[in-house]
Amino acid sequence: MAEVAVKICGLTREQDVDAAVAAGADMVGFVIVQSSPRGIGPERARELAGRVPQGVRSVAVYSDLHLVPDDIHDHFDLVQVYGIPAHTERVIVAFRRQPLAPLPDGVPVLLDRPIGVAPALDDLRRHWQAAAVVRAPVMVAGGLDPDNVGEAVRTARPWAVDTARGVESEPGIKDPALIERFIHNAKDAA
Q1: Rounded CA gap, 126 and 123, in Å?
Q2: Angle between helices 149-156 and 176-189 (to 10 degrees)
Q3: Sorting pLDDT into bands at 50, 70 and 90, what band is 64?
Q4: How far is CA 25 from CA 76, 85, 127, 180, in A?
Q5: Average pLDDT of 16-25?
Q6: How much is the mean pLDDT over the chain?
Q7: d(CA 144, CA 163)
Q8: What is the pLDDT of residues 128-172, one digit of tens each?
Q9: What is the pLDDT, as a whole number, of residue 97?
Q10: What is the CA radius of gyration of the chain?
């Protein structure tokens, strides 16, 4: 299996961006959704994205297609949106549970879990098995943490994995040791 990419998402503080980059994250995500405990405003997201070095991709995460500004790629490498936008260049198309068809060819698809649900391990395993049959490239998200990401990678064989709360000490506050373990375990399982 090829190396798996890792996205650490829901970053709200400079030290968390720095910890994700230092640990080897391939992508770092900024949730521009005010209702999220990890949500930050667009200006703050741009400030934090400015810390991201060459070789690590910054991702602006939006829950609503209609809120994505036209100049988004002036500030971020990628945009992640729930639903299929009209333009899919430099976009990760996200879905909770199964994706809608038809999917644009070659556009990364993120499969997430429902919001606010703490899934049992059997539910997570079904999620990973479902991700394994979605056409590539697929990114697995939802309920991933350092203890289960290795199994997720071996089961789904994704292009990438994504976590936010799985590496937090409290909502919106990342734990550098958990970030390191998550990235190590994901890449070790690939």
Answers
A1: 5
A2: 30
A3: confident
A4: 16, 26, 23, 9
A5: 98
A6: 91
A7: 6
A8: 999 998 877 999 999 999 999 999 999 999 999 999 999 999 988
A9: 67
A10: 15
Tokens 């698809």 -> residue: 109
Between CA 21 and CA 174 the distance in angstroms is 13
| pTM (two decimals) | 0.94
